[in-house]
Amino acid sequence: MMKVDIGINEQDRIEIAQGLKLLLADSYTLYLQTHNFHWNVTGPQFRELHLMFEEHYTELATAVDEIAERIRTLGEIAPGTYKVFSELSSISEVEGVPAAKEMIEILVRSHEQVVKTSREVLKLAQEAEDESTASLVSDRMREHEKTAWMLRSTL
């Protein structure tokens, strides 16, 4: 492949891509968690939560693609296996099927973790004057902060 020459030095590109890989792993793990809860939620709020979780995982499906494509734009390989995602993600898998309220609490914590991971990547992007990554990550932060707020509001 040709050398990437987009005005960001190689070391910065690699560091930013590494941060994006962590964000991708967290986002994909959250996608799986949300999809699992969509399929398995029960209780008096079933319909509301089932539909809300579907909205969330649909949005996350687009997000993981955008993050992976940014990694590729920076000249690095995007991770794409469960094994690698589980090694990179700071979000733990959930055992069994929790009650609806616990699902919401878990999702709030997971969205908040994605925000924290995003903040770290944002710093790297800003230091390297990588506005494309900074914009992508800033948008992701805003989406996850809003989603966490909405989920907290249902409790």
From TrEMBL:
- Alphabetical list of CDD domains matching this protein: DPS
Q: Name one GO molecular function term.
A: ferric iron binding
| Residue ranges annotated for the Ferritin/DPS domain, each copy included | 20-155
InterPro entries to which the protein is assigned, alphabetical: DPS_DNA-bd, DPS_DNA-bd_CS, Ferritin-like, Ferritin-like_SF, Ferritin_DPS_dom
The highest taxon in the source lineage is Bacteria
Which Gene3D superfamilies does the UniProt entry name for this protein? Answer: 1.20.1260.10
**Member of which family?**
Belongs to the Dps family.
PANTHER family to which the protein is assigned, alphabetical: DNA PROTECTION DURING STARVATION PROTEIN, GENERAL STRESS PROTEIN 20U
Name it.
Answer: DNA starvation/stationary phase protection protein
